[in-house]
Predict the structure of tRNA methyltransferase 10 homolog C.
Amino acid sequence: MQSANMLLRKIVRSSVLPFAAQHGMKKDLFPLSRTLSLSLCLKQDKSCEPSEKLDLDEWKKVMKSGLQEEVSEMVSEPKELSSLAAARETLEMWRLAGRAVPENISEEQLKTFMECPSKSAKKKYVKFLYLKELHKKNDKRKMEEKRERRLEAQQQASDTDETKKSSFVCLWSSTMDKAYNWRAAQSMIFGQPLVFDMSYEKEMSLREVSNTVRQIILSESCNRRSVDPFHIHFCNFKDDSLYHREFIKQYREAWGKLLITVTDQCYTEIFPKDKLIYLTADSPKVMKTFDHDKIYIVGSMVDKSIKTGVSLARAKRLGLETAALPLEKYLLWSTGAKNLTLDQMMHILLTLKDTADWKKALEFVPKRKYCGFVNKPVKELKKTLDLINTLKLGKRREEVEKQFAKNYPKKYKLK
């Protein structure tokens, strides 16, 4: 009996007294409602206090709270998983509704989405994730395109190298070079001379001289590939001049191998004056046909930086015949100066020499400077010029008629 009392006493102390100590209550201050007094056997025990009372309601609450904490720990994970699934379903419904929703979203992003305080905040957060994912996709696509372009460039370079290394291509290029050089060598003996006047160095700056030399190089290349090339003469060419230094800079070792004639003499000292014709845009005489017995002179200069009439004055001072290309006769001139580059002049002269067709030769004039060829009736020409000047230049009718009368013969004068 005494052992049973001791066991009951230990159970009470291990369950109720810790609860009292946790809530700061004393043993003798329990409420009087629904109390349980210990039996007389407990009271007679000397180690026991006179009267100990228990609150059964509080005891039940403590026991229930312990069970609830254990159950909540077991149920919290399934609830969290169910809420994430519900959030994913919500986002899927938004995607089906046509809203901007990212394709891939992590659990952390889902938790942040669930913690948003309002629906508008959730929409903004989802839109932010969508734009972020879109930027990543675009960056990835650009990187892939860049990689593909680099691979294609490498492949093209390798193909080009293989083509260059091909024996057939090497044989073909060497053979064509020999053929071009043979034609140029023949032109030095039998070809028609074409003179480049190299006496305009003092009229130009270093940059303008460099541009002039580049145009002459293009002219020489075009002439060398022609079926019937000219025999090119560089007259009034001084050693160690700006022209000379620029030619060496551009041609390098090939400068001494060019099949042309270079001299410091004037063209009047080499050729008879009655065969020389100075081509200049300022000449009052218009060139009608190409003469194979004449020797044409081209001023080696950039026309934009030269004052009007410089080449014409030089030709008159030397007593030479001058001529200008019939640009206004064959072309509906629109805007810009009627000056051509040296390589364009070379193309025109070579075409005239081979075909004697002005229309075919003047196709090398830049199309931005003219509207077409004069091959329509006068009424259509008048309408075209009126429309051009009205829309582009904004001129009045009187000015249009004056320009038309100036550019075309009197028999086409407007009424």
Observations:
- Residues 101-160 form one domain.
